Amino acid sequence: MDTLFLSKTDLFRGIPPEDIESMLGCLKAATKTYQRGEFICREGETVTAMGMVLSGSISIENDDIWGNRSILDRVSAGQVFAENYACLPGEKLMISAVANETTEVLFLSTECMFTVCPHACGFHNKLIRNMLTIAARKSLNLSRRIMHTSSKSIRGRLLSYLSFQATQHGCREFDIPFNRQQLADYLSVDRSAMSNELSKMQRDGIVKVERNHFVLLESDGL
Amino acid sequence: MDTLFLSKTDLFRGIPPEDIESMLGCLKAATKTYQRGEFICREGETVTAMGMVLSGSISIENDDIWGNRSILDRVSAGQVFAENYACLPGEKLMISAVANETTEVLFLSTECMFTVCPHACGFHNKLIRNMLTIAARKSLNLSRRIMHTSSKSIRGRLLSYLSFQATQHGCREFDIPFNRQQLADYLSVDRSAMSNELSKMQRDGIVKVERNHFVLLESDGL
DNA sequence: GCCTCCTTGTTGTTAAAACAACATACTTGT
DNA sequence: ACAAGTATGTTGTTTTAACAACAAGGAGGC
Question: Please, which of A214, A216, B39, B62 could form a disulfide with A172 given CB 3.0 to 4.6 Å?
Answer without folding.
Answer: A216
